[in-house]
Amino acid sequence: MSEVTTVLPPGQPDDTRPRRLKAVVHRLDGGLEDGESDARTIAGEGFPLYSQHDPSRARFVPTRDIK
Q1: What value does the mean pLDDT of the chain take?
Q2: Does 32 map to a domain?
């Protein structure tokens, strides 16, 4: 089963947390996807990841490719 874990910075209440958090997705093929995400769980279509090269558009990493 795929799992995504997010950690809030210390002392920051849930209602003021940043919209996006740093995320690293580990792929089954051994690759890593670095970026930011506003999602806290993996959706049916995958995990949305914003890259540093295009922070305005999310790219979905397919669920079947996530370790």
Answers
A1: 83
A2: yes
Within a domain: 26:
yes
Q: Which of 29, 9, 5, 31 is nearest to 18 (CA)?
A: 9
- Give the model's confidence band at 44: pLDDT under 50 very low, under 70 low, under 90 confident, else very high: confident
Strand partners, 22: 36
Three-state DSSP class for residue 31: coil
Q: Is residue 44 part of a domain?
A: yes
Q: What is the pTM of this model?
A: 0.65
Q: How far is the C-alpha of 54 from the C-alpha of 57, rounded, in Å?
A: 6
Residue type, 22: K
Q: Are 67 and 30 in contact (CB under 8 A)?
A: no
